[in-house]
Design goal:
By secondary structure, the protein is an alpha/beta fold. It folds into two domains: 179 residues, 3-Layer(aba) Sandwich (Rossmann fold), CATH 3.40.50.720; 84 residues, N-(1-d-carboxylethyl)-l-norvaline Dehydrogenase, domain 2 (Orthogonal Bundle), CATH 1.10.1040. The protein is built from twelve helices and eight strands. The chain has an eight-stranded mixed beta sheet, sandwiched between helices. Strand 4, helix 5 and strand 5 form a beta-alpha-beta unit. Helix 1 crosses helix 2 and helix 2 runs antiparallel to helix 3.
Length: 286
């Protein structure tokens, strides 16, 4: 069976991940609708897309013509119903809260055409569990992008026991147009990347907590010794300490004490030190 080609995409959530996902979808030639809970969030997301594109021009990766074409294919839409009414693919990029995502997919099941593919950008929650309320398991899939989506090449595609091969082929096709390299993983807590990433991050936090070395030197050890492009503590700042904490709490519930969050992380989140987005985490970003 020929896979469904994706021409129209709705992205739900214009924040850290959502605006970047909308950008790469538009760069892949799709018409994109960006939706969020407030017009201010949508406007900010569109501004960040433009800023990303301007940065690409400055680095010689894009031309002004490329920028204009991408921007012409992205539109903000305040109405959730209107945003998802007639699209080939919906990608949700909302906060990592299971109840929020389940409510969202229940609405998507009612408001989108039966053939629309419904994807979650969750980094750790069970894809089948959050998408089940949509009532179309064959059309549901995980599409886990990496931050920043317009730079990072990896796309982790999570298939549930009931995701159809036709759906997976359609996702592979749009991923190729986005310039992504796909890995396919089973719908299991933390998938592949989150489990590996938080394991390294947790050990780095424990080392910092124990005074083994500074955040800078711990990160430098991985960057220079293991050729990681960014150390685990700086990466945690970029992802968000609150996001990392939520993932760890979920994995601790599902897989046990090996994913117990370090106290240094809980304390930082409680103090509002969430990383780059608040100006301070393990590093100062002011």
């Amino acid at each position: 069976m020929k896979s469904r080609e994706i021409h129209n995409v709705a992205v739900i959530g214009a924040g850290t991940m959502g605006h970047g996902i909308a950008q790469v979808a538009a760069q892949a030639g799709a018409s994109v609708i960006l939706n969020d809970v407030s017009p201010e969030f949508i406007a900010k997301g569109l501004e960040r897309i433009q800023a990303n594109l301007e940065g690409g021009i400055q680095r010689g990766k894009l031309t002004a013509g490329d920028r204009d074409q991408v921007l012409s294919r992205v539109a903000g839409e305040e109405s959730f119903e209107t945003a998802v009414a007639d699209v080939d693919l919906v990608i949700e990029a909302t906060p990592e809260k299971e109840d929020l995502k389940r409510d969202l997919f229940e609405k998507l099941g009612r408001l989108t055409p039966a053939e629309t593919i419904l994807a979650s950008n969750t980094s750790s929650l069970g894809v089948a569990r959050v998408t089940d309320p949509a009532g179309r398991p064959a059309k549901c899939v995980g599409m886990h992008f990496f931050n920043p989506p317009h730079i990072m090449k990896l796309l982790e595609v999570i298939r549930t026991d009931r995701t159809s091969e036709d759906t997976l082929r359609s996702v592979d096709e749009i991923a190729e147009r986005m310039g992504k390299q796909v890995i396919r993983v089973k719908d299991f807590p933390g998938f592949a990347t989150s489990r590996l990433g938080v394991t390294l991050g947790v050990e780095a936090m424990r080392m910092l907590e124990e005074g083994v070395a500074s955040a800078e030197d711990i990160d430098k050890a991985m960057e220079l010794g293991y050729k990681h492009p960014m150390g685990p503590l700086r990466l945690t700042d970029l992802v968000g300490l609150d996001v990392r904490l939520a993932i760890l709490e979920h994995l601790e519930r599902e897989l046990g004490d090996r994913f117990k969050p370090p106290e240094i992380l809980r304390k930082a989140v409680k103090q509002g030190k969430l990383g780059k987005k608040t100006g301070e985490g393990f590093y100062s970003w002011t």
